[in-house]
Amino acid sequence: MKVKTFDELLSKLENHLKHCSIYREIIPQVERLAVTLRFLATGNTYIDLHYHYRLGESTIGKIVTEVCTKIWDVLHDETLRLPSSHKDWLRIAAGFESRANFPNCVGAIDGKHVRIICPAFGGSLFSNYKKYYSIVLLAMCDANYCFKYINVGACGTDSDFIIFRDSNLYAKLQIGKINLPEPRQVANSWTPFPYIIVGDAAFGISRHILRPYARRYMTHKKKIFNYRLSRTRRYIESTFGIMSNKFEVFHWTSLINSIKIVKACCVLHNFIRVFDGYDVIDTMSIVGLENVSLNSYNIMNRTGDTLRDLFANYFVSPEGSLPWQNQYIY
């Protein structure tokens, strides 16, 4: 049974949060959930929450850790799953094509540094280029600002591409376990375009990831491509911003047990967006298009640079250009 309301979430969490004690009455499940949500939403320290709820600091710390773990266990299968069917991928692609005018995009990927208290014996592993200690949240989102994949816990010194290269998502892409649809023709173009993920310059270009052109030797075509890519890639930046403003723990607190807290915030972010009723894109116009065989056009043998040029040529062609795109490249 899927969780649709906060009342259902609370009742489902009750089965996971029961404890017995012969010394004193247990803390009610409602209060434990309230303490955790207040901590995540406000970023208050355990000392502040101690005065609000009259609970010990260590008790609050244990409650936050335990409830965040259970929130992830209860919600992640329902709210944060990598799409497994062609229909799900096509729905994501339809969202990006409708809102960002980027065809065949199935995700925007980027990394976010989350401030932490440096673990014991962590040394310089968690010290990032922004001069504070952090772990990295690597995430991919759709056009509705919902996370579709997260990887939490990499050291702050690691680059986004290194984290991505070591992730399960990269491994599945390499061996073909991601059930992406076949390449398809787009808007009056006879050339089939593969389904891809967009990222920033920190990611290496490949058959699955498109990154912007380098700033040197920029041509009109390259500037147009970079503009169109940035319009799509900003969705992951906006998703991070929406989550951070919703859960101010990311603004004010150096986190302890940070991995559990970040994972809980990600699934709660998706749960709230679904609960609030985000827009669902109609995929009928894309599902009905004719798919083209991979082998017939040798798409899989093309390099990342060739695929990037394919999209760039389309964006400056009469079929794929936008009326206003030339206004934003100079």
Query: What general form does the structure show?
Result: elongated
List unreliable stretches of 5+ residues.
Answer: 281-297
DSSP summary: helix tally:
13
CA(first)-CA(last) distance: 52 Å
Order of strands across the main sheet: 3-2-1-6-7
Let me know the largest β-sheet: 5 strands, mixed
Keywords:
single chain, 330 residues, alpha/beta, 2 domains, two-stranded antiparallel sheet, 46% helix, nuclease activity, metal ion binding, HARBI1_dom, nuclease, hydrolase activity
Please specify the SSE layout and strand pairing.
Blueprint lengths: L5 H9 L14 H14 L3 H8 L3 H23 L6 H14 L5 E11 L18 E8 L5 E9 L4 H6 L2 H8 L8 E2 L6 E2 L2 E3 L10 E2 L9 H27 L2 H4 L5 H19 L7 H4 L6 H4 L6 H12 L15
Parallel strand pairs: 1-6, 6-7
Antiparallel strand pairs: 1-2, 2-3, 4-5
Helix pairs in contact: 2-4, 3-4, 4-10, 8-13
What does this structure look like?
There is one protein chain. With 330 residues, this protein is an alpha/beta fold. The chain has two domains: 6-79; 86-328, no CATH class. The chain contains 13 helices and seven strands. Strands 3-2-1-6-7 form a five-stranded mixed beta sheet. Helix 3 packs across helix 4, helix 4 (57-79) crosses helix 10 (258-276) and helix 8 (220-246) crosses helix 13. The longest helix is centred in the last third of the chain and has 27 residues, at 220-246. The model is unreliable at 281-297 (pLDDT under 50).
